[in-house]
Amino acid sequence: MENLLVTPEEAAEALRVGRAKVYDLMRTGALRSVKIGGSRRVPRTALEAYVAALLGEEVA
């Protein structure tokens, strides 16, 4: 089963950007994330929604 949540580092790798950029996107709300304990995680659906928004597409 593919992970439903990824670390910011894994999100950065998937988006081909730096880790700092992912934290910036999370801070501004452009990339949704959840806090579990003291750690931030990014839902895979949030990555897909972010890319779709960049492309100007609607996500179901």
UniProtKB/TrEMBL annotation:
Domain Helix-turn-helix: 5-52
A Pfam family that the UniProt record links to this protein: HTH_17
InterPro entries in the record: HTH_17, SinI_DNA-bd
Gene Ontology molecular function, alphabetical: DNA binding
This protein's name: Excisionase family DNA binding protein
